[in-house]
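Comment thread on ticket #2218

A.B. wrote:
> Attaching the input chain for the structure job we discussed in standup.
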Amino acid sequence: MRLDSLADCTVVAVKGIYYLPEESDPAASPEAIELVLKESGSLDLTSGTDWTLRIEEGAWPELPKWCYPPDAWAYRDILALSAEMLGKIRAVGKQVNEYGDLVQVELQFEGGSRIAVASGESLIVTFAFADKG
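C.D. wrote:
> Ran it. Output below, let me know if you need it in another format.
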């Protein structure tokens, strides 16, 4: 799926994909995140071995094929995100490295919330929520 095709898609859930032997570490970050789309299907974002950001078609609720052996991997909620916090994607921003490789994506949602996913030695996922006050 192309990044620009995400505009106007609705995200209904964000799941972290964790390698279970590392999950007991409180500082463990997800190996990937999966965006579950209302329209159908899902999208995986993960760090490549070259520290670039890989974006692949997801298989929700099945784990990606690279999660091997499957019993060593699991989906976990990253945050208690509600559909109201996310919703429809209004804009997709990307950052590339000096070689033109994708290293970060920022999704901006209709309500003002944002999710940024950056690749590197570990995946970095940050959330910014719109102030509803």
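A.B. wrote:
> Thanks. Noting for the ticket: The first strand starts at residue 10 and ends at 19.
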